[in-house]
Amino acid sequence: KGMATPEKATITLDAMKMLDPRRLKPDSVETERIITVLDETIAKLELSSLIPRIITSLDRFADMLGPEITNSLIEHQKLSNEMEHLLASSEEGDTMRAEEQRGCLCLREQRLKCSVRNVLRLLLANPSLCQALKYEAWARESPAEVFIKAFGEFRNFMLETLLTSPMEEEEKIQFMKDISLQIKKNTEAITALQAELAAAIQTQEEEIHMKDNVIKDLKNGMQDLTTDCKAGIQQIKQEGEKQQEEELQASQARCAGLQQDIQQLGAQLNALVLEHRASELALRKRKSRVEMEIVNWIQKYDTDMGEKQAEYEEVDAAYTEEKAQLSLLMEKHAVLLQEYSQIEEERRIRQKKEEQALKELTTKTLAAIRIQAFWRGYLVRSLFKSKRKKKKKGKGKKAKK
Question: What DSSP string describes 73-126?
Fold first, then answer.
């Protein structure tokens, strides 16, 4: 590697200064205005890319945004949903309504653009809110991030173009030509080096060919060694197969014993199942008898209540008749009538309480019957489980002996 000359170092430094965008600063009012417009556009793009994320979490940002911005975002969401619905219907619809759907799409598109501009105007009026939303909102979607990055590169390109003078442009072109000439020289040098490399590779291949002959001799010796190893492996394999056959016979004998034990346990299981089914059938019959008794009690209760209702209606009719007769003397016997009304009310309340007590007694009786039935079933199942455990323990002790 050769040392870099001072001339080459000067050219490289000038090129780095020429192509470095960080050294570019606006030097005129027009340039500053153009760059300001591009920066404001980037800020608006960043805010507009956050609008879908803010709408999905509108409850979270409602206090921060305020009612006016929240209402604008809700209206924007409605317009977006309508736009998506129209696009979906236009894909599924026929060609007859294409013109009508195209007109509706254009109108919705204009309204959506106006809504975006309105939301951006309200957000940009509060810089602190914009800064807070950039920190609070989630990351942007990848297409929006790519577009914003590309627009930022376009802004830097425009700045570089506006700040590059014609003389600097010519210097840049001359610099690119010098680089092309240098690349051409380097290519020629690389070609010469590749030729030298090919010659060296050929010499190395000849040496490798000589080494291959030595490797062949070593392979022949290894083949003889492999033959001897195969004979030993074959003998070991035969001994292993013999031992495997013996172990297989012993394993088959153990499996036969285990199969016999499984058959015995299966017979015991079937006997227990039959026994439990018989007990379950007896319990079901008892349950049906109890249910029939409950139905009979309910019918008897309905009959008694019907008789009492008829009796109550007769008493009520007699009371109505007496009340009609006493209506003529009501002015003279107001005090007695008031006492009679109180007595009648107490009688009605007492009768109602008696009916309610009778209903509660019936309900409690039915509940007690069912609880007793379930408890007896539980006792029977517990008894069978304890017997089964005792049998299993007895069998385990026999097997250990």
Answer: HHHHHHHHHHHHHHHHHHHHS-GGGHHHHHHHHHHHHHHHHHHHHHHHHHHHT-
Would you state the pLDDT for residue 389? 77
Helix/strand/coil for 324: helix
pLDDT digits (tens, 9 = 90+) for 80-102: 887 777 777 766 555 546 667 77
Q: What angle do CA 145, 150, 155 make, to 5 degrees?
A: 125
SS3 call for 337: helix
Neighbouring residues of 65: CB distance < 8 A, sequence distance ≥ 6: 54, 73, 129
**Amino acid, res. 164:** T
Short-list 45, 48, 51, 52, CA closest to 152: 45
**In angstroms, what CA-CA distances link 316 with 146, 303, 310, 311, 334?**
90, 20, 10, 8, 21
- With 0-12 CB in 10 A as exposed, 13-18 as middle and 19+ as buried, what is 44? middle
pLDDT in tens, 233-267: 777 778 777 877 888 888 788 888 888 888 888 88
Gap between the Cα atoms of 62 and 52, Å rounded: 14
